[in-house]
Description:
Elements: H1 25-62, H2 65-70, H3 86-117, H4 120-132, H5 138-155, H6 168-192, H7 196-204, H8 209-220, H9 222-237, H10 241-247, H11 264-272, H12 281-311
Helix pairs in contact: 1-12, 3-6, 3-9, 4-6, 5-6, 5-10, 6-9, 6-10, 7-8, 9-12, 11-12
Amino acid sequence: MSVPQQRPRPASGSPGFLKRSQPRYGEKAIKVLLVAAALVSVLTTVGIVIALVPPTSDFFSEIGIGEFLTGTEWSALFNPPEFGVLPLVGATLLITLIALVVAVPLGLGAAIYLSEYASSRTRTVFKPVLEVLAGIPTVVYGFFALKAITPFLRDNWWFDQPPQIFNALSAGFVMGIMIIPTVASLSEDAMAAVPHALRDGAFALGSSRMQVSTRVVFPAALSGIVAAVVLGISRAIGETMIVAIAAGLRPQLSWNPLEGMQTMTAFIAAAGIGDVPVGSTGYKTIFAVGSLLFVMTLVMNLISIRLVRKYREVYE
């Protein structure tokens, strides 16, 4: 019986010779930087929680949480003080809803046009122009709402009672314009990621471009579209300057968009730059309102993550 001969080991420097890989310090450094970048967001969130919890706990040790969450009068910085946060929450939700009514249809319409109808040359021109809106300072939007939108509505109002000088309608409308680029850009990216094979198959079956856009591409990109809308909602809820300038600083529980009202962020801004004594109950309301805003945003993000996972499409 013949004994199999061992193959000779390739000589050093020959094509078949495998050298021990040299340490790649550049890759290790990049990995460390990426891990550090990922930890920044986590540490920032932890820092926010640490900063909010102690003053909030002190506030609720003086004011009952039931009175805070169910009260309908808010005058935390006046005498006698009232700590019902519902007027601030109601104004925040109302203005955010108006902004979504403006931003979601226009943003999704722009995304469908850029993704399915526009040529590549048109897309390269219009998408950057659309995203320029995201770079405009929000204080500019606020004065635009106060000096342009509100006078236009008051001069051309078709009903009996025109909007007040400070009103939620103008603030919500301009805020909707502000978040259109967020909804449109991210939704267009999600639609562009849908494989072209799905479009080609739909066209081969005789579908029109509108049917392909709304019945094939839109459902396939639904998870990304939901994420875009939720990001727009988060930005609308956290917006400060537009609502402080255009909606006013009068806290009242009202669902009439023609009246002035104060949102949660507007109160935090107004109280933070005021002369409220540090350590007082009025000062601690800043942290209580901020904690409630943090919890609302967290719950909304958890719901959005659930929706994104539910409607996510995975393509091979």
